[in-house]
Amino acid sequence: MNPEFFIPIPVLLSQLTLGLVNGAFYAMLSLGLAVIFGLLNVINFAHGALYMLGAVLAWAGMNYFGVGYWTMLLVSPLIVGIIGIIIERLLLHWIYELDHIYGLLLTLGITLVIEGIMRSAYGVSGLPYAAPSELRGATDLGFMFLPNYRAWVLVASITVCLATWFFIEKTKVGSYLRAGTENPKIVESFGVNVPVMITLTYGFGVALAAFAGVLAAPMMQVSPLMGQNLIIIIFAVVVIGGMGSIMGAIVTGLALGVLEGLTKVIYPQASSTVVFLIMAIILLVRPAGLFGRDK
Amino acid sequence: MSSNLLSVEGLTKEFNGFCAVDNVNLKVEKGSIHALIGPNGAGKSTLFNLLTKFLDPSSGKIIFNGQDITREQPSQIAKRGIIRSFQISAVFPNMTVLENVRIALQRKLGTSYHLWKSVSTLNTLNKEAMDILDSVGLAEFSDTITVNLSYGRKRALEIATTLAVNPVLMLLDEPTQGMGHEDIDRVKELIKRVSAGRTILMVEHNMSLVASLADTITVLQRGSILAEGSYSEVAKDPQVIEAYMGNAHVEVLGEH
Amino acid sequence: MSAFEKELGNSSKNISKILKSKSVSWSLVVLTSLLLAPFIGVYPVLILKILCFALFACSFNLLIGFTGLLSFGHAAFFGGAGYIFGYFMKSWGIPAEIGIILGVGFGAILGYVIGSLAIKRQGIYFAMITLALAQMVYFIFLQTPFTGGEDGLQGIPRGKLFGFIPLDSDLVTYYFVLGVVLLAFLAIVRIVNSPYGQILRAIKENEPRAVSLGYDTNRFKLIAFVTSASFSALAGSLKALVLGFATLTDVHWTMSGSVILMTLVGGLGTLTGPILGAVLIVMLENKIGEIGFFLAEVTGIQWFETLGQSVPMVTGIIFIICVLSFRQGIVGIFTRVCRPGR
Ligand SMILES: Nc1ncnc2c1ncn2[C@@H]1O[C@H](COP(=O)(O)OP(=O)(O)O)[C@@H](O)[C@H]1O
Ligand SMILES: [Mg+2]
């Protein structure tokens, strides 16, 4: 075998699991983006910043108050969810009637403010955050060593994604949510308080982002800019998958993560652009997106 | 056969498994006013969207003037002279009334891609635009910004704009929707006047208008054709009476 | 129409006539001061930098303001052209105008590629696609060796104009760039006020209607996109010429955000708004430290002194204020106040 093209199996598998983990992040974030867009008609540019905020809060909890990972895994999304609710009530609330671009621009402004504050507080260099002791080390699967933390992130994020899917597609509250994306008036006539539903949806969507942020904290450098490039990848994921389907968002996210992981092994230089390339190809062959609704 | 300007064969549109237009066969005779009626959600607007290629049909054929146009782009269809109006008002709201008509006239100058020419070269079209506005009774509003027009006048402007491209086949989607008596009468006169030498396919709920204008009526229900014929024929059809006309008569007598 | 309405129409016409003559005299004032600026002690490079951004914002506005398309990827044309210009100037030693032409050509081609893909989707998706594709361009520039990675291209020579006019002096460069920017601005004004510009307006106001009247709107949009990208690339090449460097910041999406902000602050869909917006935002970015110190002194709040390091945050706050309560921008509000009929 030509040694140049020989890819050691462990490296491949390791990159694949890492890709899968990244894909799970993409899934969780694009899911939140889709849910928010469905109900608020706002593309939440701030999603990346709020993901970062989740991670930074986890770090701050540890460093200032000695609060550990597991607590912050709950507290951090909660705080970010509340911040989201405040953002929705204070700012987003006013622009639902306007052209969609204003939602994008407003949340872009919010992004810059959040990132700006964090930057002036922490600078741009990464803050180290250790995985909880229970999840350190790796497990020998026979064919590869799987870092325990990665395994946990995969299980946790896919569980959360599926739970969200179940909640939205299979429960009564979820059916209101879905109906609300089509016709808020009808939902109102069921006695649902639609403005509250909208606020809570935004809070939930960004809490999901913060949850992803805490999960990411031990794996990536915690930094005020960690969401900046991620949000654009998420946009590409959403363009590829289309925002009509929850399962579509999950599947697309995971698949793209894996593809990205594969690219890292085969042709590392392209790993940061492969998602965008795939987006371009999808636009050529299936402009409405993989799970997009008929135009 | 040759007198059919438009003929549609087995046209079908599915939205995620739901058949909004189901195997429709339709022939529109040259020079006629053809009305398409049917309850809300019957698929009338969808049919219009298919005919003008704003939607791609799932299957079926559209023949216009003997040519298969099923695969063409919306703008190509328009260039063939099939011009549609929309169920919701289709004007350019922040342009003046005159500019609205001029947009339609501009195409035949062939300078629409000329980014280096002055807009004043379009002034040669002003007279023709004014004539068209005059014919729909909007001449005195030519300098008004279109958003400020009343609803009825906006719809009249739409018809004027459509006329400006000298359509062979006009597709009007509920041209009197949401109008009061006076406006309806005006639009009725207008359609009657402009129908000379043209073919019109229109969706309309106002039965008295349909009765007095349409040569042929097609009744659509749940995506399929229920009946077709002249007003008196269709009105007698027991299926139609049961499904639709009964209500429509009430509507005619009561509401309008 | 009642006599009153007619009178109202006439008087508003008169007002707009006055405004027109006023705007003519205003442009004369601005033009004269621009021509004289280097002699009254203003630093020409700062003015040129502002002019480049003004041109960038005007090109961007051609899309958002006059076609209704929000591109979130214009940094790729602006910053990318700067790199192309810089690379050829540095390693081939070509005349400046050829370098600029190469930069613009790059912008046009890239605009064609990104535009063709992005017009396949509408509305907010269009913005997301342009953003994603521009990010791809960013990564490519980050990784390609000729761009100098994180450091960017430094020390780009200005070269000679037409092969014999050296642009070493700031003054010569000043008048050259001023001339090019003015011509480009006039070209944009003409495009907006051309038969083609009318169709763009129609597309912005009601695209399906424009289609139903027989216009292939995708083609119009693509041409507008390529035109806008080319002018942005011109602005980017000029900026690299003036400042002598090209860096990754100009290709990053935050630069696309900046140009959106300039246009929004000045007034979307107005001819002069983007210029005003560019002046304001560039000045603000330059002076924000001083403003911070001033505020700290006046209010006694120490925190303001750090404002100089928080440009993005201030930008963000302006974005929020603009979107919530200032969507017409400065020029938009000004015209509304002076011309109530419209
Ligand atoms: N783009 C679309 N996607 C999914 N369903 C659609 C779409 N457009 C129309 N429909 C459905 O097709 C049916 C016919 O709609 P329409 O043609 O608007 O009816 P009509 O004009 O006769 O009132 C409706 O049930 C509508 O919900
Ligand atoms: Mg309809």
- How many structurally independent domains of chain A? 1
Number of helices in the DSSP assignment of chain A: 11
**Residue share in helix of chain C:** over 70%
Q: Oligomeric state of the chains?
A: heterotrimer
Q: Major sheet of chain C: size, sense and barrel closure?
A: 2 strands, antiparallel
Sheet/helix structural class of chain C: mainly alpha
Shape of chain A: globular
Strand order of the largest sheet of chain C: 1-2
Major sheet description of chain A? 2 strands, antiparallel
Distance between the termini of chain C: 18 Å
GO molecular function (chain B): ATP binding; ATP hydrolysis activity
Domain ABC transporter (chain B): 6-247
Pfam families (chain B): ABC_tran, BCA_ABC_TP_C
Protein name (chain B): Amino acid/amide ABC transporter ATP-binding protein 1, HAAT family
Describe the structure.
The complex is a heterotrimer of chains A (295), B (256) and C (342). In chain A, helix 9 (230-241) packs across helix 10. A two-stranded antiparallel sheet of chain A has the order 1-2. Helices cover 69% and strands 2% of the residues of chain A. The N and C termini of chain A lie far apart (49 Å). Chain A has one domain. Chain A has 295 residues and is mainly alpha-helical. In chain A, a hairpin with a 4-residue loop joins strand 1 and strand 2. In chain B, helix 4 packs across helix 5 (151-164) and helix 5 (151-164) packs parallel to helix 6. Chain B is α/β, with parallel strands linked by helices and 256 residues long. Chain B folds into two domains: 1-81 and 167-250, P-loop containing nucleotide triphosphate hydrolases (Rossmann fold, 3-Layer(aba) Sandwich), CATH 3.40.50; 89-165, no CATH class. In chain B, the strands form two sheets. Chain B has a six-stranded mixed β-sheet with strand order 6-7-8-3-9-10, sandwiched between helices. Chain B has a four-stranded antiparallel β-sheet with strand order 2-1-4-5, covered by helices on one side. Chain C has one domain: Orthogonal Bundle (ABC transporter involved in vitamin B12 uptake, BtuC). Mean pLDDT of chain C is 87; it is low at 1-9. Chain C has helices at 3-36, 44-64, 74-92, 96-118, 123-143, 170-192, 195-205, 207-212, 217-243, 253-266, 273-299, 311-325, 329-338, and strands at 160-161, 165-166. Classes of the chains: A mainly alpha (295), B alpha/beta (256), C mainly alpha (342). The interface between A and C is large, with 43 and 43 residues. The structure holds adenosine-5'-diphosphate (ADP) and magnesium ion (MG). Chain B: It comes from Marinobacterium lutimaris. Chain B: Keywords: ATP-binding, Nucleotide-binding, Transport. Chain B: One of its GO terms (cellular component) is plasma membrane. Chain B: GO terms for molecular function: ATP binding; ATP hydrolysis activity.
